[in-house]
Amino acid sequence: MGVNIAAINMEWLMNYLDKHIKPEQCHDLSGDYICISNVHTTVTSFEDEEYCAVQNGGLMAIPDGGPLSTVGHMRGYKNMSRTTGPDLMGQIFKISAQKGYRHFFYGSTANTLKKLADKLLESYPGITIAGMYSPPFRPLTNEEDRFIINKINSLEVDFIWIGLGAPKQEVFMAEHQGKITGLMIGVGAGFDYYAGNIMRAPQWMQKMNLEWLYRLIQDPFRLFYRYFHSNKKFIWEAIVKGK
């Protein structure tokens, strides 16, 4: 469907990041971004050439959605597995104190960011939260944009977690590619998960690629049309037609 989904698994990705992110010096991935891709973002990319270019313009687009890795298996990538944004966050948070990683969180509300900081400091002793920023619910002015770029760059962070939701977070990362030092990763609802605002699906639902159903039950009015349209189109285009 036009999106270059990385045929990877979590073990490969963690080894890759460990090799290329070096806190003691300017790391290889600074200024780039990772898209956390699922059925919704893939269908949106299929329907919007500009957004597809954003998905393909970063370091990689990883398979957050279970159907993406399922299609990967069907196409011969047997080691490919679902690599979710929240799982990636947790894996990196666990080793952050040991590795000396520095984090910046961009997105959500001030209240959620406060809860997120408290939860992370409690759950991951020694983690370094270098900064947080809750942007206004409107486009940034040029002055505001320069301010946040300078602020992040002055803090010399390794990971900039972007929690704006798709497609807004991916567009933000593409627009700031090469301007912000550190690796940007768009994690959607990841902030809310780690702040305790919403719960993730039980492990058995995650393993059966049913986390989307759990989220739909939690927020049916917002997600019903998205899932109905995206899932139907993905099945037809990627599985039936093999795009």
TrEMBL record:
GO terms for molecular function: hexosyltransferase activity. Keywords: Glycosyltransferase, Transferase. Pfam families: Glyco_tran_WecG (PF03808). It comes from the Bacteria. The keyword Iron does not apply. The keyword Aminoacyl-tRNA synthetase does not apply. PANTHER family: PTHR34136, UDP-N-ACETYL-D-MANNOSAMINURONIC ACID TRANSFERASE (PTHR34136:SF1). This is WecB/TagA/CpsF family glycosyltransferase. It comes from Diplocloster agilis.
